[in-house]
Amino acid sequence: MSPIKMRLTLKLCAAILCLGVGGSSCNAQQSAQSGLKTVDNPGGGQFVYGPLTGQSSKVDAMVYMLHLVHNHFGDKPQVGKFLQSRDGGSLATFFTLNAKTLGGRPLSGLVIISFPDKGTPQAAVLYDDTKSFASNEPKMMKTLTTAWQGSQGSSSGSANGSTQGNRSAQPSGAPQQLFPATAGDRSAMIKMPRSWQLQNVAGGSLVALGDRGEMVFMGLIYQNIINPQSPMGQRLLSGPMASRGPKVVCPMSQNLFVDYVCAFNQVRRNNGKPQGNFNFTGFVPQPASRQSGGQSVVAKFTVDFNDGMGLRNGSVWVSLLGPLNPRAASWAFMASMSNIPAKYGTAMDPTLVAVVESYSQDAAVIGREGAADLSRIHQQGLANQAQTDAINQRRENSANAYEAHRQQLNQNNAADDSHNAEIDWQSKINQDYILDRSVIRDSPETFHALAGNDLADALVRSNPTTLEYVPNQELIRGRDF
Q: pLDDT tens-digit profile of 65-112?
């Protein structure tokens, strides 16, 4: 352990000891420090735990603990929501601060107060650098739980065991015993209590339900979401595909939680289930390892699925698949969500958190399935191309046949026009002969005129240089007949 960590641990042990004696002299209680233990987590972070005396209630103890943390680190801890166990025997809260006594290092931590019905009250403080606390806290919590079990036995969580059927007794803040489980294509695995049910495992995603109504949805991919803000997306809603099955229609926005609620509720509606009434309660800072350029978020919420279970507490991790493009025709995201009925706990319920943290995927299975999918897509692509080529050939053959037919019609029309013109010309000649008429014209042929033979003869004689008869073979269709 580094000298700084050693000094920090000793000072914090002394601070907790002072809390335990309820304000008496620390020097007078140095011998009691043997009851406190310090654990240095191998992956980073530390926690200190031990018996707590001199405080009349969990709230008093929590306030005093936070005050001691403030004094020790030189900065007031910014606390989150207070979390209470199902049996009311323990109280906890997360905190963040900038440790001025350590050069302003940002720290995150967890304070736990336990007041069992029987036995000695306990206190613990877990802390680490903010960037690594989220990943190290579950490990420290697991080690702390084991340590509490060893020091107090199963009685430390006396009220927890008998209220849930055949569950074994658990210390306050400790998860139930978990067992590995998988099913379906075995592409994902999770650890969960034996009383839970695994609903579905496919393509790396997993759905599990707890016996108290807990819900765990891990690695679910929401794809082919139509974006109504895009012109192309609007065409998908009004074009030939508009009548093809149920759709998920949600705009892509900067708020991934709102987008998640939109898609999640529409999937439930399409599956014939009531939609959830979500209430956003805050975003959770992500460790650097989980951040992806602003394209993912972790959000906390409450929700009522209108299923008779009432209000639930939950959290969801949402990650956009692809770039943020509000003009895209369709888009997709991946989400992992868990929730628990509010009457049983919060989103940080130890068992729920442990189950979620245990989720893992089998990359080999997913890889084989992906290769099979690509092969099917390739074969389908070849079949689609052959079908498209056949359709195009039929279309081209039809177009050529139509063009030939049209040309034949044009030829027939031209022949018919020529025949009709011949008939009209013969008729004109016969009419003029019978009616003693002639067609005359001026020499530049600016006009043609029909006149009786006598008048026509008089006009031509009087104007032999400008007027002349029009021969029958020079009669013009549309002018003379």
A: 888 788 878 999 998 888 877 677 788 889 999 999 888 999 999 999
**CA–CA separation, 140 and 146 (whole Å):** 10
* Distance, CA of 329 to CA of 252 (rounded, Å): 10
Query: 303 by DSSP, 3-state: which?
Result: strand
* Residue from 218, 162, 220, 165 nearest 192 by CA: 218
Q: What is the distance between the alpha carbons of residues 228 and 327, in angstroms, rounded to a whole number? A: 9
Which residues face 114 on adjacent strands?
90, 122
CATH 3.40.1000 is the classification of domain 3-152 = yes
Distance of CA 62 to CAs 82, 211, 258, 387, Å? Answer: 10, 31, 35, 72
Contact 122, 51 (CB under 8 A): yes
**Can you read off the two tokens belonging to residue 48?**
């200190």
Helix (H, G, I), strand (E, B) or coil at 145: helix
Cα three-residue angle 328-333-334, rounded to 5 degrees:
170
Pure H helices in 339-473: 350-358, 363-434, 453-462
Number of CB atoms found within 10 A of residue 348's CB: 21
Q: How many CB atoms lie within 10 A of CB 465?
A: 7
CA distance 182 to 361: 10
pTM for the full model?
0.46
The strand pair at 46-51 and 78-79 is best described as: unpaired
Residue 212 is classified by DSSP as: T
- Number of Cβ within 10 Å of residue 95's Cβ equals 21
First-to-last alpha carbon distance for the chain, in angstroms, is 119
Task: Output phi, psi for 323, to 5 deg.
Answer: -70, 155
Residue 223 phi, psi (nearest 5): -130, 170
The correct answer on CATH 4.10.410 for the domain covering 179-361 is no
Tell me: the pLDDT tens digits for 316-361? 999 998 888 888 888 999 999 999 999 988 888 889 999 999 999 8
